[in-house]
User: Fold Galactokinase from Xylanimonas oleitrophica.
Amino acid sequence: MPETTDGRPAAPLWLPAWTAEEGAQRVRDLFDRTFDGPAPDGVWSAPGRVNVIGEHTDYNAGVCLPTALPHRTYVALRRRDDDVVRIASAQTSEPWRVRLADVAPGAVEGWGSYVAGVAWALREAGHAVGGFDAVVDSCVPFGASLSSSAALECAFAVALDDVFGLGLGGDDAGRTQLVAACIRAENEIAGAATGGLDQSAALLCRAGSALLLDFRPGLAPQEHAVPTPFDLATAGLTLLVIDTRAPHQLVDGQYAARRTSCEQAASILGVPTLRDVTPEGLKDALTALAEHDEDGVLRRRVRHVVTETARAAELAELVRGGLGADGSPDAAVVARAGALMTASHASLRDDYEVTVRETDLSVDTSLAAGAIGARMTGGGFGGSTIALVRADAVEDVAAAVRAAFADAGLAAPAFLQAPPSASAGRDA
Ligand code: GLA
Assistant:
């Protein structure tokens, strides 16, 4: 156990979520300090997410199972009568300004592109969105693969929906249109070629539930996103999130390279997406890829995607059954759920090659300290891991990971509790 200078063991660093009142107060105060004139029209917020399982499946038309974090990004916003956007953030000293007429793919840069991108995408979809003054503050850790970017986009999506009267935020069908706008903002204006997992989680999750997302094209909204009650507390379990503090950056080449390999493999196999390769058809698909794939990269990527969707579907089924045979949690079912999570991590490490030393160490240490299952969550190349832990073992697992990082000479990780929380909405 590492020690502080006064000889006491160093305690794990916990990152609590703000209450809605605290978040709202922070952005109201920041708004007052930043802008002259009337008070904001309101305060809105959107959550970060953890993905329980189903990684790098969204852009392969596969399945994943996120929950919304209690950690949220808050926005105070006032509508303007022109098309000027002025935004400021507690997390950066750089205020940001643009005219919406000047927003286009490749034309804007910086953190504000995620915000202006949402307004741009809503306008592209035919909605009458104009300029606004806004400020942002957040307790979603940044660069931790907990979807701080989607939380930013989605908080603005619900704010703009409200103040410009678009009428989309009230049901899942409308929110699905907001999801689409946020994905376009991220892909086309911010320049990150991500799938739709994060934005769907931030706009469609329910408190107390995981969200079973199926990205097969052509599904109706209620088939695409199915809230699935996920009551870990009654099962005596906790989902522990470990922000390894290993830097994580999606707007770089690695994520896009994974996506391109998947598209290339699908095209060689003559299928629209890798969802069309079934677990039963995997062996034949790998054989067919062999002659185009000297170094085995495409085969490893395909093996991950196909097995990951199968694992995600199986875990979703276990969650739907209450992690038990007869509606009450059952140790064998919980153990199977943990095993699926751990197998997901091995696949991401060995076949998809998106884990790093810190995420591997965090997972291995969590398991050695008694976690029932553990895996990296999100895009990878750093970021966070999650561990399914008995509620009475949470502190021990956190202390073990804290100690292992100190022994390895790594920066101290941070820890979050992640009860499944609510999606984006108006706070005040
Ligand atoms: C990031 C992307 C998502 C998804 C995950 C990996 O979070 O934003 O679209 O691809 O990585 O599952």
